[in-house]
Amino acid sequence: MIVLDRVRKQYADGTVAVNELSLDVAEGEIAVLVGPSGCGKTTTMRMINRLVEPTSGRILVDGDDITSVDRVTLRRRMGYVIQQVGLFPHQTVADNVATVPQLLGWDKRRTRARVSELLELVGLEPDRHAKRYPHELSGGQRQRVGVARALAADPPVLLMDEPFGAVDPIARDRLQAEFLRLQEQVRKTIVFVTHDIDEAIRLGDRIAVMRVGGHLEQYADPSVLLSEPATEFVADFVGADRTLRRLSVLHVRPDGLVDWPRVQNGSDAPQAFDAYDADWLLIDDGQPKWLRRSDGARVDSAVIDVGATLADALAAYLAHEGPGVVVRSEQQTLGVLTGPQILAAARR
User: HEC states along 34-102?
Assistant: First the structure.
């Protein structure tokens, strides 16, 4: 756990970078610091590993006041990933990942095994990538190596300063998805800095919105931040379209779905249309389709899994004809999520 207690950073010229900041990051949680340039988010992160010394206040990591811990020892307890990665260009991927284990005196066999394990964990085949050099990798691949290096000695805390900011949007989306998958496996306590509110909403368990001068405006989980912004600054920062952004943090549940009228193959459709007084029927014979009453056409249905976000559900709904989205679990149809239901959920 990380605790910041009334932390302040003021420079010699009188500039206040961080002002009386108090927040905590629970074990295994991703806390995202977000805000405009100059709000102190990177300074806050650098104070946690003592790259920057606070002027006042306390920072505790797993109960230890960081000022009572040797800087080198402290930093070896933390992985650190930055935007430009900072790989050593003259070293191979394997040697880059092995940097901290070698500093800690691990033997070669243990180090090699750890390097292979981590490369597989971040989605890079060891046989293919271990002997390559950073200039032979794409930006996204270099970022993955940076994450692997930060995890090499299995630190409990991971600090990430805009790690995906320098890659193209497609690679960034994939890296974010891979990061969430990775966190499900390793469960690190993570402080993540970004200026992108959409990235913060997607990745954060809790989000700290900061404004210039290092003032904390709100610290809350994404759903609360979007539905109940604490100040006008937060409301402006998350944007007027925060109702749509909420869909990305709300998930499709098995309860509340419509048990839509369905037939097995369409042969009994005329009687079913009359019986249910419906304009659409669901043909559920393995691959769900909609049957339209007006012309008897069969239309591919939008299908999502239970647990998907409402943003995914809305995208699927808009991309297909029909009254709603079929929700499945392990290939079993649970029901239908209608368009009005999705919109109602966004407005709540």
Answer: ECCCCCCHHHHHHHHCCCCCCCEEEEEECCEEHHHCCHHHHHHCEEEEECCCCCCCCCCHHHHHCHHHH
| CB-facing half-sphere around the CA of 288: CA atoms within 13 A | 26
Query: Is it the case that residue 59 has pLDDT exceeding 90?
Result: yes
Range of the domain at 301: 262-347
Q: Give residue for tokens 């149809």.
A: 333
pTM of this prediction exceeds 0.85: no
Q: What is the CATH number of the domain that holds 296?
A: 3.10.580.10
Q: Which residue, 145, 151, 157, is CA-closest to 95?
A: 145
Note whether 24 and 153 are same-domain residues: yes
Give Cβ neighbours of residue 318 (< 8 Å, ≥ 6 apart).
none
73-105 tens-digit pLDDT = 898 889 888 876 678 889 999 999 998 888 888
DSSP letter for 291, please: E
Is 314 in a helix, a strand, or coil? Answer: helix
DSSP letter at 134 equals G
pLDDT in tens, 139-188: 888 888 888 888 888 889 999 998 887 677 887 888 888 889 889 888 99
